[in-house]
Amino acid sequence: xTLIHSEAVASSPVKSEPPGNRFYRTVWRWHFYxxxxxxxxxxxxxxxxxIYLFKPQLDTVMYHNLMFVQPSTTMLSYxxxxxxxxxxxxxxxVTKFTPNLAxxxxxxxxxxxxxxxxxxxxxxxxAGKVLGVRxxxxxxxxxxxxxxxxxxxxxxxDYLIELAACWALVLLVSGxxxxxxxxxxxxxxxxxPRLWSKNKRIFWRDLHAVPGFYGVLLIGFLILTGLPxxxxxGDTFAQVxxxxxxxxxxxxxxxxxxxxxLNERGALFVPWAAESMPMPVSIAMxxxxxxxxxxxxxxxGYSATLVADDSxxxxxxxxxxxxVVALAIREGAPPGFxxxxxxxxxxxxxxxxxxxxxxxxxxxxxxxxxxxxxxxxGWKDYGWVARAVEMGxxxxxxxxxxLPNQLxxxxxxxxxxxxxxxxxxxxWQRRPQGSGILGAPAMPPYVQNWKVPLIIVAVLxxxxxxxxxxxxxxxxxxxxxxSRFAFFRRLFG
Length: 493
Fold this sequence. Notes:
The protein is an alpha+beta fold and 493 residues long. The chain folds into 3 domains: 19-53 and 148-228 and 402-492; 70-134, Nuclear Transport Factor 2, Chain: A (Roll); 246-385, no CATH class. Helices cover 45% and strands 12% of the residues. The chain contains 14 helices and 12 strands. The protein has helices spanning 19-53, 55-62, 64-67, 78-88, 140-150, 155-179, 200-226, 233-241, 320-330, 384-396, 402-430, 451-463, 465-482, 486-492, and strands spanning 93-98, 107-112, 118-123, 130-135, 254-258, 278-280, 306-308, 314-316, 338-340, 348-352, 362-367, 373-378. Strands 4-3-2-1-9-10-11-12 form an 8-stranded antiparallel β-sheet. A hairpin with an 8-residue loop joins β1 and β2 (107-112). The radius of gyration is 28 Å and the shape is elongated.
């Protein structure tokens, strides 16, 4: 993925070389090393991003028999729909519920089995029967999302993705500099690729540089809007910009957990802007003599115990879940919202959604015993940074303005893949026979001038700590090892 200009031909370094040429070859060399590291990750992110980009269409095709039902006049209560799934999997724990988002759609009940599997049980909300299940960890879209996020290797994969994304920004900036014409400005080879050229180097260079120029802003947008979800930079960014005023939680009992812990259960559940929102706790009310035996499952959400509400009257907890869903709808939860079940006796119901329009986002916590709304956060409560992040994420995922949004992001992903492939081909073609392992562009003469490198390291290190640290390593390698020892120059040059 290297936007290498056709005139960037390595020449033998000489002491009289103009500073501009030295800087150009230094940028080229950095661009080469960045591309060498970034290319595999960009190929992975591009391919998996395309799959997840079209998740709505893929879901409809792959799970049509599970997602669509014949509408009827009478729909079962939400509690009965959950009970239908629980009866089919009595040993499982109910974790999530998604009401049908249209009259002809099924409801989804998320469960965790005793074997540790996360399943989505599709329930006909009219007939009260299970239509089938989907493994939430082993379906195509889920696998693509996990590879996209952490390469299926957990936190270390997350850090590698973050590092590659940050280096990709360096790659874009350096590539744009290398794309700029150094002498005569020509339309051909700058804005129009010379695909008819019989010169293979010109063909591949133009197929790389010109699409790279047209896609540089979109690719940069994808990188920047994806970084808030990363484990190191994203968590730090959220701690600074994702907080809400403390007065919002006055008189609300809080746990030590943040709402973002719900995203650790598997698929993303709450928006980025709500991840740092404190998680309230439910307070058990005085219990009257129960008329039914309490359910053995701590997460079923509809056990038949009687509790006293705020007025002192008795209320059947088996009706609370219906009240919770109705409250979420009444408070403006958009179609497609889901409700996470309490994790323990002090846990809360949490209603949240990822609507296409982030201005409709809302995250609500409700007491599991009384169904009372404890806390609610939505677009109106977000700061300008949180709003920018959520809007960026919606566009990044191709949701904000429908199919045109998906096609625009598809173009960006395809350009990313194209740059990765053409950059690799160019490197292989330009690599001199008998050179070192990498065949890197020739290094300019060593000059005792650290001002520019130190400024770059300082700026990048401040904005992106991981790339700053890695850049220090690259500089030390390039200026203290490769420039002084012939063995390493032959090995990497």
